[in-house]
Design a protein that fits this description.
This protein has 634 residues and is an alpha+beta fold. The protein is 44% helix and 16% strand. The radius of gyration is 45 Å and the shape is elongated.
């Protein structure tokens, strides 16, 4: 796009321009730019504002060059890509000439307007040009020679404008073109550099936005342990001041191990660290920052709240509550009363004790309470106190520090109490918790703090305890196997979950639910329950409660080969030696229900209240069912 400024090469360019000017019908005797090409001051300001960066840089170059040429008889002008003059500066005699010929801001100087001139020719040919006065198209301007150069956009695809240098022909030389061309190239280079700076600024701002949006605290530190940069989250977690750059990280958290890692070029993962200002424990990870040659020049530090790390750990291990109150199936009065009490418990934060036989769904209730509470989006951690050996229960509950015992995991490990922080800890079979562990649990409930096995510092925890037991804890207290003070701590709200035998109206409802679920798992149709199977299910005591019923349904669905589920599919001789009570033979469902009520009433020796309670219905409902059944029989 540039040519060597030799007159023989420029001559062809000038001749083409002169020919175009003649075709445009330009009068060789014209005295300058036509008045009709002029734009008003407001339009000129808008034009300059639209290309502000180009204008300012080009004007700066023109002013810088003119300072060298001042008082030597020269004048310089700047035009935009359409030929409109934006800026003019020069010696007085040349400025008079420019004024007469209207080469002033606001006028347009192109070949179509004034014929062959430096600005118009540079824009038309997109090359630097030297135009001797004798080759000017306008006769009145032939005592002035000109040099002009286009200013290209940084990518070289567009002409943004042109810079011209004019002077008396006796003072102008072809080599003055080099000055103009250098000015134009400098403007383009500065635009390119500013573009790069802008891109870097945008990238930096984008990166800053991404980092600030990260929920973790992020810092970069120098190899000496000084803070280079940090995001808002890091400032909040460590209590960093707004002007913390350059300060030692050690003033805000222990950094000795971090510096050791930087010195050795090693990484660090999920190391516990204490913020000096707040005393809060965070988890810190470090990755060295390396130059292309491998030199470690600093480190990238990520900081996470202990609560957040615990929450993620709970999610990974699946310790989340999945069941809600809608998952609890049944229409018996006793079950509905238990659900009602559980919903009340969900609205508060008091400890809950769930009492019920094995298999009645105590964990189902615990999860439903959690999912309807304010802690629903926090961890739900379950621990079966009877399933863990006494020697391991303490470390399972409280966690342990690295090296606290043989085989301890490197870096230590949080316990269930710590994992459940801000959420719910479900202690199943709490009646089987060793006596000495009861003392330690009571201390946690009283203080709200824990200490890991082998640890020295205390960790504050905020959690809700839901306990469950199939034992009579009051009897255990009398037998000195359970602490009375702990019992009162965990039993603020006590909910009794009825066994399945006391809610017979729910047996078939639950059985059909389990049949549908098994059918989906086995990818086969759900099989119906014939009448004699219904009688068998209703007459069985279900000592294993709902869990046993679900197991028997699964067994039946696997064994059934016909189109129905028969009693022997549920109660085969191999089924733990258990068999249903004598089946209630014949009659409609209402008759079978009446016989079942009468049998239960006989077992209760005529005690209507006890009978209603065992059947899971109210006394009025019991009377109504008896009266309706007797009326139908009559």
């Amino acid at each position: 796009m540039q040519i060597t400024p030799f007159l023989p090469e420029l001559d062809a360019v000038i001749r083409r321009s002169l020919a175009r000017s003649a075709v445009y019908g330009i009068d060789p005797l014209h005295d300058g730019a036509p008045e009709m090409t002029r734009i008003g001051p407001a339009a000129l300001r808008r034009r300059i504002a639209a290309q502000q960066e180009f204008f300012l840089l080009a004007r700066e170059q023109i002013d810088s060059l003119y300072r060298l040429l001042k008082d030597t008889g020269f004048c310089m002008a700047l035009a935009d890509g359409e030929g409109y003059v934006l800026y003019v500066v020069g010696d007085a005699d040349l400025m008079d000439h420019f004024t007469r010929r209207r080469c002033l801001p606001g006028y347009r100087w192109t070949e179509r307007d004034v014929g062959t001139c430096a600005i118009g020719l540079a824009l038309a040919e997109r090359i630097p040009v030297f135009l001797p006065g004798s080759r000017m198209y306008s006769v009145p301007a032939r005592d002035i020679s000109n040099a002009g150069a286009p200013v290209f956009s940084p990518d070289g695809t567009r002409v943004l404008g042109a810079i011209s240098l004019s002077g008396q022909s006796r003072r102008m030389h072809v080599h003055t073109l080099g000055l103009v061309r250098q000015a134009a190239e400098t403007v383009r280079a500065q635009l390119r550099e500013r573009g790069r700076f802008r891109e870097l600024a945008i990238k930096r701002q984008s990166l800053r936005a991404i980092i600030d949006a990260d929920p973790r605290g992020i810092l970069t530190i120098t190899s000496e342990g000084r803070i280079a940069e940090c995001n808002r989250r890091a400032r909040g977690l460590l209590g960093l001041p707004s002007a913390c750059e350059g300060q030692l990280l050690n003033g805000y958290m222990e950094s000795g191990e971090l510096l050791h890692c930087l010195a050795t070029g090693s990484s660090l993962r999920a190391k516990e660290a204490v913020a000096r200002q707040s005393g809060v424990i965070h988890f810190v990870s470090l990755d060295p920052l390396r130059m292309p040659g491998g030199e470690v020049v600093g480190g990238l530090l990520t900081i996470q709240e202990r609560k957040e790390v615990m929450r993620m750990a709970v999610e990974v291990t699946g310790n989340m509550a999945h069941f809600t109150f809608e998952s609890i199936l049944g229409r018996s009065e006793s079950l509905r009363l238990a659900v009602h009490h559980a919903r009340i418990a969900a609205g508060g934060g008091a400890p809950v004790l769930l009492c019920g036989e094995t298999g009645t769904g105590k964990e189902l209730f615990a999860q439903a309470i959690h999912n309807s509470s304010k802690r629903a989006h926090q961890p739900f951690v379950a621990l079966n106190c009877a399933a863990i050996p006494k020697e391991l229960l303490e470390s399972e509950l409280f966690g342990y520090e690295e090296g606290s015992f043989t085989g301890a995991q490197r870096g230590g490990r949080p316990g269930k109490l710590e994992l459940a922080d801000s959420g719910t800890l479900f202690l199943d079979e709490i009646g089987d918790m060793p006596f000495d562990m009861q003392v330690k649990l009571l201390r946690v409930l009283q203080s709200g703090e824990i200490r890991r096995v082998g640890g020295l510092r205390t960790i504050a925890v905020n959690l809700r305890i839901i306990s469950a037991t199939n034992r009579d804890l009051r009897q255990a207290i009398a037998d000195h196997k359970f602490r009375e003070d702990l019992y009162y701590r965990i039993s603020t709200l006590t909910i009794d979950i009825p066994p399945l035998r006391e809610r017979p109206e729910d047996i078939l409802l639950l059985a059909e639910h389990f049949i549908r679920r098994q059918a989906q798992l086995l990818e086969r149709p759900a099989l119906p329950l014939p009448e004699r199977t219904c009688r068998a299910l209703l007459s069985y005591a279900w000592p294993g409660n709902i869990r046993q019923l679900e197991s028997r349904v699964e067994r039946a669905m696997h064994l059934a080969e016909g189109s129905e589920l028969l009693p022997e599919h549920f109660f085969g001789q191999a089924a733990e030696g258990e068999a249903p009570s004598p089946v209630l033979e014949g009659g409609s469902l209402a008759e079978r229900e009446l016989r079942l009520i009468q049998d239960m009433l006989e077992a209760c020796e005529g005690n209507m209240s006890l009978c209603a309670r065992r059947l899971g219905i109210s006394r009025p409902t019991l009377y109504r069912k008896l009266r309706r059944g007797r009326d139908e029989r009559a």
